[in-house]
C-alpha cells in the first residue's frame, strides 16, 4: 500500500486534469452514501469540532473513504481547520491501495469543484477575482479559478489583513497579480467572480453589493447554522449547488433561506450532476447573477484519489 504525502498530492493534481476528472465522475456511476457527520463538544467553551466520514465506490474499480476533522479554532494554534486522511481500496478485491494525505486532497478537489461549476456559471471573459478568506482553501480556489477563466487580477480580503497581504504576495509570486484589501464591499462590487471560503456564522456578502453578470462561489459555512451570503444575495441570484441532497441539508447558505421561505427548494436550478451531464446549460445570459454553493461530496474525493494513485504509479489518467 502506498503512503502518499501532501507534496505528492500537490504535484500530481494539476487543476486542468482534476477539473476534467471531476466532470467525468459527475457524469459517471459512482455510489455515494450520505456521509457521517458528528459534532464533538470541546471543553472550555471552545467551538465544537466535527468528524466527517465520507465513503464512495465505483463498482469493480475503486472504493474509498475519507476521515476528516474540522476544528474551527485551529487558526489560533497555527494549524489548519481541516485535517484528515483518505484510504483507497481496490474495487474488486478490497485490497488497500493507498493512504493519502487528505488536507491537500480536500483543498484541491474542493477548489476544482468550484472551478468546474464556474466553467458553466461564470462569464467566459471573467478577469477579476475577489477571494474572501485567507485559509488553506484560498490559494487553491484562486489557482483553480485561474485554470478555467482568464484571471488577471485577484483581490484578497480576510479578517486578518496581515494574512491577506501575505497571501497576496504568495499568489503574485506564483504568477497571478494579487493585492490585499480591507474594503470588502468595494472588492465584491468590482469582481467578476467572488469566491468565499470562511468559517463565518454571519453573512459576509450582501446582495445589495452584487452586480449584474457576477458569479458568487460559496465554499465555506459548512454547517446548517453558518452562512457567507445574506438573503438579498439569494433573492438576486440564480442558485446552483454541488449536490441537492448535501446542500439542502448541510450548508446554511441554502438551508436557512429554505427554512425561512426566502428560497423554495424547487428554485435551485441545477447541481453538478445536471451541469456535467448537459441537463442544464448553466449561465443563461451575460447579465445573470449566478450563485454556487458547495458543501463537498465524496464522489470528488474518490475521483481525486484515483487520479493521485494512477499518477504516483506512473499510469496515465483515465486508462
TrEMBL record:
Highest taxon of the lineage: Bacteria
Residues forming coiled coils: none
Pfam families in the cross-refs: OCD_Mu_crystall
InterPro entries the record matches: NAD(P)-bd_dom_sf (IPR036291), ODC_Mu_crystall (IPR003462), ODC_N (IPR023401)
Protein name in the entry: Ornithine cyclodeaminase family protein
Source organism (scientific name): Kiloniella antarctica
Organism taxonomic ancestry: Bacteria, Pseudomonadati, Pseudomonadota, Alphaproteobacteria, Rhodospirillales
